[in-house]
Amino acid sequence: MYEVKDKKVVLEHGSINKGIIAVASGKGGVGKSTVTVNLATALAELGYKVGIIDADVRGFSVPRILGVKDKPKAVSENEIIPPEVKGIKTISMGSFVGENEPVIWRAPLLGGALEQFFKDVRWGELDYMLLDLPPGTGDMPLNIMQKVPHSEILVVTTPQITATKVAGRIGAMAEKMDLQVLGVIENMAYYQCTECGNKDYIFGENGGETLADFMGTELLGQLPLISEVRRRSDTGKPIVFDEPEAEISKEFIKIAKRLAEREGGFDEKIEPLKLNMNAK
Ligand SMILES: Nc1ncnc2c1ncn2[C@@H]1O[C@H](COP(=O)(O)OP(=O)(O)OP(=O)(O)O)[C@@H](O)[C@H]1O
After folding, report:
1. Tens digit of pLDDT for each residue in 19-65?
2. PANTHER family under this entry (predicted)?
3. Residue 225 CB–ligand 1 contact under 6 Å
4. How far, in Å, is the centroid of ligand 1 from the Cα of 234?
5. 215-272 per-position pLDDT tens digit
6. Structural domain boundaries of the chain?
7. CATH of 3-260, one of 3.50.50.60, 3.40.50.300, 3.40.50.2300, 3.30.470.20
8. How many CA atoms lie within 13 A of 266 on its CB side?
9. What is the pLDDT of residues 138-183, one digit of tens each?
10. CB distance 184 to 164 below 8 Å
11. 149 to 100, 167, 175, 200: CA distances (angstroms)
């Protein structure tokens, strides 16, 4: 599917120079796709070249959130030009089937599609590739992680105990496959009243921190629950792009900077993650 040469992931039609970030969540609906798109936008705003593979083949929502209007263009049997929005190249199952059509995939079939996304798409030179994984820790995300052993995992969770408990399994999955966990992003951390500024911790407090502690990784950021995020995602205008001065956009930029200050590049050997089984 790809090879690693001179610290780069070399693809058929391009390369990835700094990192493959697989965005995972223990369960659906916690904002994984929203985070993927806004983080990609933040990295692009910082000047990095970014691609997104929407690997959430059943619940694909990247095209809608990013505002993709164009279809991928096949220039030959083995070469596809991906749509590009806001400087971000992206490919999604959603570009090949209608939004309302069910996609009945089995993990091996998904593996085939993913391979094609890596091999046949003309990505050009990228700094970061983001993978929006299917939610959970079932066959689908497992299969993807196995196929892309140079990916590093970013875990999205809400602070709610039910969400953090299942997200903890991603750590075990990563450990089994010798994949690094980059950190945890706590989404929907609190709702801030637009009138009085009071913070309401709707889904509980400190869940992200507890999860990060359990995984022996860092809590990269806490994102508030605000209706503007949902509204803009529904209309294809990621908030980081559309309202860069919003507090949540600044938090995304902070997370992107934190990720980008790491050295980057790809090694043959990947250090396994150590789980801290004694954490609360
Ligand atoms: N911080 C936020 N504030 C307000 N709404 C949010 C926030 N994050 C996500 N949402 C909304 O929550 C819903 C679920 O988000 P999203 O589709 O990103 O979740 P997901 O984890 O990718 O779900 P799935 O994996 O099941 O597709 C969407 O309507 C999205 O607009």
Report:
1. 999 999 999 999 999 999 999 999 999 999 999 999 887 778 999 99
2. IRON-SULFUR PROTEIN NUBPL (PTHR42961)
3. yes
4. 10
5. 999 999 999 999 999 999 999 999 999 999 999 999 999 999 999 998 888 887 554 4
6. 3-260
7. 3.40.50.300
8. 26
9. 888 888 888 899 999 999 999 999 888 898 899 888 888 889 999 9
10. no
11. 32, 20, 12, 39
Per DSSP bridges, beta strands 50-54 and 73-76 are unpaired
Handedness of CA 224, 222, 29, 257 (dihedral sign): positive
**Bridge partners for 11 per DSSP:** 14
* CA dist list (Å): 234 to 1, 7, 35, 83, 278: 33, 38, 14, 19, 41
With beta carbons less than 8 A apart as the criterion, state whether 186 and 158 touch.
yes
3 state DSSP class of 156 = strand
pTM for the structure as a whole: 0.92
- Using CA atoms, how far apart are residues 103 and 155, in angstroms rounded to an integer? 25
Rounded-to-integer distance, Cα 278 and Cα 211, Å = 12
Q: How far away, in angstroms, is 29 Cα from ligand 1 center? A: 5
- State whether the beta carbon of 189 lies less than 6 angstroms from ligand 1: no
Ligand 1 pocket check for 63: Cβ under 6 Å? no
ipTM: 0.98
User: How many CB atoms are located within 10 Å of the residue 224 CB?
Assistant: 17
